[in-house]
């Protein structure tokens, strides 16, 4: 069976004056229709770049240097700009991190919704408006007709993120890539937005790639998790297994540092040290300077992602 | 939006009041309305009598109120060199200056927008490098020098454009007030060099401003999101980025057109252009105070009017301002 999305051996580099820097190093994963995948990691681990490289929107000077991305059986990593445009916002939609910055301040919500539909379909303004209204209802926005004529600055952050979700739904996409969709929002609104996203994915049978640093969010919403560290996937598997029986020492550390896992009053656990910058990733396993289990082999040989226990893939020599 | 417009108009009125006060103070200190009226061949006794009759010995505030009342009726005193009401002299010369400004504004808009946007979209291209280096040159050259160089090149050497005067004009409304050069070929040819030299200072500034604003806008999240929505590059650049670029540019445009207005004095002198700047210099030379004050008030009025209109246009483009106005 062919997968909806198949990322194979993806490598993304950034061309800097001092030479190319590898931001993503050999990332592979698959996504089936209606499946929800979480990509977790610290900032700088390459999770956002992974998301953006799927629709070929990596910020300059980044570029895909190796690997392929297949979507619905076609190799979209070879697509030209105009071919790719037909996928963006249409078959694969994106939700950005900060809803306060994502909408253009000088156009109404209706304008920004209608233009998206008209970019992908030969449709009249009135019809596009009707669809926009229907999607606004789907994201449970109060008085949607009014919203269409409002400007972004008249709405709150949570409301704007709902509108962005509505925009991503406009063309009934196969995949939604959500890049830290709740990081900029209040905790109470975070939960509402995540529930909404999950519900929509289920009812519309859409696949979701949820990029976040928040393991709690991922464990509630997704079915599979990919944990990234320094540009590589170091652990991949079904969400409940990765959360309850993690294999890689980094994932164990991450889960151990969630406040709920410690007794109240006790100091929060944390992983010692910091993630290396992309320009000086250590030899062997990139996690070795911070790892409690580090042995000589870890500083010499880069571990491969292999199946370890009950369906979890991990890249670690010690397990 | 209505409240916003009203507020801007009230602000404009306040500014005009202050300017009229300054203008009147100058007039009451250094002007001599008696001489304006009767010339210099009258005895001091008779002068004193006339001054008393005209109320020149009244308290300052009463005189100022009278000045404002008369100004509102369109009476800004008499110009003794033309022996006509000062305002009429100004108004008769205003169209020449106005046409100079319109021509300059057109050049600035139609040259700086395409060049500024082009060099923002392709900052490394040959054309934008050329634009950038040329604009540095333009900024650093004074208007009168540009004007003289242009005359030397196009009028003296190539002999394809006239070097002075307005050329053939057409009476626009049939009442002799607005003689326009835009409607005849000769008039348009006469407009080219003065407008070019007048725009030479502002043009580089606007190209650079548009370029830097546009480059900044192109880096924003909402432009990246527009790409992620699958919009075409033309739409992203010309609709999404353009409108946001325009906001700061419009404000600067209003202020700069006011400054350009001031520069017309030099340009009109070099090209012997019979506009307001030209008669202003004449008024200074022969110390025609009434004419000077009339010039000051009218120029300030135009300045305030342009800025008010620009602010209102800005309000229409920028939705956040509109909201602030309704509150």
Radius of gyration of chain B: 24 Å
Whole-Å distance between the termini of chain B? Answer: 10 Å
> Main beta sheet of chain A: strand number and arrangement?
8 strands, mixed
Global mean pLDDT of chain A? 90
| Fraction in beta strands of chain A | 15-25%
CATH class of the largest domain in chain B: Mainly Alpha
Which short descriptors sum up this protein?
heterodimer, A: 319 residues, alpha/beta, 8-stranded mixed sheet, 4-stranded antiparallel sheet, 11 helices, globular, B: 327 residues, mainly alpha, MetI-like fold, 2 domains, two-stranded antiparallel ribbon, 77% helix, 2% strand
Map the helices and strands.
The complex is a heterodimer of chains A (319) and B (327).
Chain A: E1 5-16, E2 19-31, E3 36-40, H1 47-54, E4 62-71, E5 74-75, H2 81-87, E6 92-95, H3 99-102, H4 109-120, H5 125-138, H6 144-148, H7 157-169, E7 175-179, H8 187-204, E8 207-212, H9 215-221, E9 224-229, E10 232-238, H10 239-244, H11 249-256, E11 306-309, E12 312-314
Parallel strand pairs in A: 3-8, 3-9, 6-7, 7-8
Antiparallel strand pairs in A: 1-2, 1-4, 4-5, 9-10, 10-12, 11-12
Helix pairs in contact in A: 4-5, 5-7, 7-8
Chain B: H1 2-30, H2 33-38, H3 44-53, H4 60-72, E1 78-79, E2 84-85, H5 86-121, H6 126-140, H7 143-157, E3 170-171, E4 179-180, H8 185-218, H9 221-228, H10 233-270, H11 276-285, H12 289-317, H13 319-326
Antiparallel strand pairs in B: 1-2, 3-4
Helix pairs in contact in B: 1-4, 1-12, 1-13, 5-6, 5-8, 5-10, 5-12, 6-8, 7-8, 7-10, 8-10, 10-11, 10-12, 11-12, 12-13
């Amino acid at each position: 069976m062919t997968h909806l999305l198949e990322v194979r051996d993806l490598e993304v580099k950034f061309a800097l004056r001092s030479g190319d820097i590898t931001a993503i190093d050999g990332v592979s994963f698959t996504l089936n229709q209606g499946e929800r995948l979480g990509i977790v990691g610290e900032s700088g681990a390459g999770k956002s770049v992974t998301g953006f490289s799927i629709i070929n929107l990596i910020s300059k000077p980044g570029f895909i240097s190796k690997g392929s991305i297949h979507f619905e059986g076609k190799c979209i990593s070879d697509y030209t700009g105009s071919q790719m445009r037909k996928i963006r916002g249409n078959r694969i939609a994106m939700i950005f991190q900060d809803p306060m910055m994502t909408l253009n301040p000088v156009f109404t919500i209706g304008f920004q919704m209608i233009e998206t539909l008209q970019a992908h379909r030969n449709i009249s303004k009135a019809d596009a408006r009707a669809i926009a209204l229907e999607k606004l209802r789907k994201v449970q926005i109060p008085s949607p007709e009014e919203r269409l004529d409002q400007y972004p600055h008249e709405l709150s952050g949570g409301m704007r993120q709902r509108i962005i979700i509505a925009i991503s739904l406009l063309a009934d996409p196969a995949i939604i890539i959500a890049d830290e969709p709740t990081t900029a929002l209040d905790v109470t609104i975070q939960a509402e937005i995540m529930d909404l996203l999950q519900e929509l994915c289920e009812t519309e049978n859409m696949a979701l790639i949820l990029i976040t640093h928040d393991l709690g969010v991922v464990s509630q919403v997704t079915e599979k998790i990919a944990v990234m560290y320094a540009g590589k996937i170091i652990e991949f598997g079904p969400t409940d297994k990765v959360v309850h029986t993690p294999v890689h020492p980094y994932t164990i550390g991450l889960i151990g540092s969630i406040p709920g896992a410690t007794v109240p009053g006790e100091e929060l656990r944390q992983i010692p040290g910091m993630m290396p910058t992309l320009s000086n990733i250590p030899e062997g396993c990139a996690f070795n300077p911070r790892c409690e289990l580090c042995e000589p082999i870890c500083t010499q040989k880069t571990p491969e992602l292999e199946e370890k226990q009950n369906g979890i893939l991990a890249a670690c020599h010690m397990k | 939006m209505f409240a916003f417009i009203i507020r801007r108009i009230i602000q404009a009125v306040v500014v005009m009041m202050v300017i009229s006060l300054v203008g009147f103070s100058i007039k009451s200190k250094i002007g001599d309305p008696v001489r304006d009226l009767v010339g210099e061949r009258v005895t001091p006794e008779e002068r004193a009598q006339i001054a008393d009759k005209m109320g020149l010995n009244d308290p300052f505030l009463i005189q100022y109120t009278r000045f404002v009342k008369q100004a509102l009726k369109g009476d800004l005193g008499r110009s003794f060199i033309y022996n006509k009401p000062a305002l009429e002299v100004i108004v008769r010369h205003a169209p020449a200056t106005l046409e100079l400004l319109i021509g300059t504004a057109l050049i600035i808009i139609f040259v700086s927008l395409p060049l500024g946007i082009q060099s923002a979209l392709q900052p490394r291209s040959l054309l934008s490098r050329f634009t950038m280096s040329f604009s540095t040159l333009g900024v650093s050259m004074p208007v009168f020098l540009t004007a003289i160089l242009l005359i030397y090149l196009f009028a003296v050497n190539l002999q394809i454009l006239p070097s002075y005067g307005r050329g053939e004009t057409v009476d626009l409304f049939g009442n002799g007030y607005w003689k326009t050069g835009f409607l005849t070929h000769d008039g348009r040819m006469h407009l080219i060099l003065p407008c070019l030299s007048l725009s030479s200072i502002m043009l580089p500034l606007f190209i650079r401003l548009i370029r830097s604003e546009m480059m900044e806008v192109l880096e924003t999240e909402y432009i990246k999101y527009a790409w992620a929505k699958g919009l075409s590059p033309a739409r992203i650049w010309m609709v999404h980025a353009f409108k946001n670029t325009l906001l700061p540019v419009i404000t600067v445009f209003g202020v700069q057109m006011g400054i350009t207005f001031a520069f017309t004095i030099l340009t009109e002198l070099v090209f012997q252009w019979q506009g307001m700047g030209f008669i202003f210099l004449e008024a200074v030379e022969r110390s025609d105070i009434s004419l000077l004050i009339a010039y000051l008030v009218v120029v300030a009025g135009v300045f305030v009017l342009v800025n008010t209109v620009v602010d209102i246009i800005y309000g229409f483009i920028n939705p956040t301002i509109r909201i602030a106005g309704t509150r």
